[in-house]
Specification:
By secondary structure, this protein is α/β, with parallel strands linked by helices. Helices cover 29% and strands 18% of the residues. It is elongated, with a radius of gyration of 28 Å.
Amino acid sequence: AGPGVRTGVHDLAAAAVDIAPTALAALGFPRIDGADATGRTASERGVEPDVWLRRQDGRALEEILSDGAERPRRLYVFLLDGQHPTELEDRLAHDPEALPNLRRLRERAAVLASGSIVTFPSITWPSHTSIGTGTWCGHHDVVNPSYYLREKREAVSPQGQQVRTEGFANPEVESLYEAFRRVRGPACRTAAIYAPFGRGADHAPLEGRNLAEKPRLRELNEVLRPDCDPRWETARSDVANESIIDLRGTAQVVALFERDDVPPPDFVYHELVLTDGAGHAYGPHGEGTRAALDESDRRIGRVLDLLDAKGLLDDTLFVVSADHGMAPQDFERAFNPAHHVRHLGMQGHVAEPMIWLRDLWLEVSRAPDGRTGRVIVRDGDALPDGERPPVADARVSLWEGEVGEGTPLGQGGTDAGGVYGFATPSDIASDALVLQVEVRGFNPRTVRLDGTPVAFDLRQALYAGS
């Protein structure tokens, strides 16, 4: 919503990664020689500069931008965390007295009829980073609230940590904050209001950077407290905490735009978390969720009135979005199908809904005379330099035909270099001899002596030819 957009409803298949390039195009930022979704720069693709960020998976939705000379000066993103679009649209359509401030924006907005396609998994930290960089999580590297770094053998949890998480994102992708600084110079100010991704923002409380003056913030917290719905205090203390977070975030916005000694922010990424907390507590279409949307609307109104009073409203481009969806569910029940792999005895790291299996990497060979063989057992996860460490003390068994039938032809363990050598009957073909390798902490591997797997080779099925 704002200058430079075509008002009305647009039937487009839009994605969360389109938000950043569309906003920068509307602002008149220059195209640069960055990488598109292929990972290649415009120069490498043999074309003129055609993206707005150093790495860009999305596209500018030119269909919703006007051809006129009118351009916004600043960008303000309202992020209604977890807000289901159908709930918002239903309220606007059937409750004419509700949500006056969101309605005020929508009346002059380009509205996407079907919302937007979000990253997978559809959850806060990956989704916020996708919106803030214009890249999918496979490129910005924040792939889940918690995830496993194979090369470091380390589990990390940005969502669990919550503060100082900007370093988890791939430094090769460019944030919206960094793009503003690149184009408008060091005097440009940007703010991340409790947004889970704030790399490059001058004001980013979750990263320990705060440009708002604390005495004024304390005053504003009391002034804005009536915006909070009192029901949370008696019904849901967890939702009440998120209401207070949004209260404090709005106070930061007011304090930043009030200051006379620094310029107002050119870009604000304003997270409103209450809609997500209420959605989890009451379901995406519950009465509590509607109350949370009403409360968030009051805070949006505070911002609009503030910008209007400062003479900044008419040159601001507003984006109203959610970071992820929310499905109707029985919120009193908890399911975790990802942990089924542990019930099966498989080895790996589980951070629902994602699973990282701990597998072995085998190199199998046989002497030309057919009398001896050798297996080198390595960790399936390579180190940053690409090397796979050897696995010592792996138990190796050699069988003819099927594993467990009869007596093994040989058994032993790998040495410190991950190597085990063994005798083989020269009259038996390699594809009739089977090696089973087992070691604690890894999933076992079973292969024929010619190197082909006995079980279904998922890796081959997924990545053959890539």
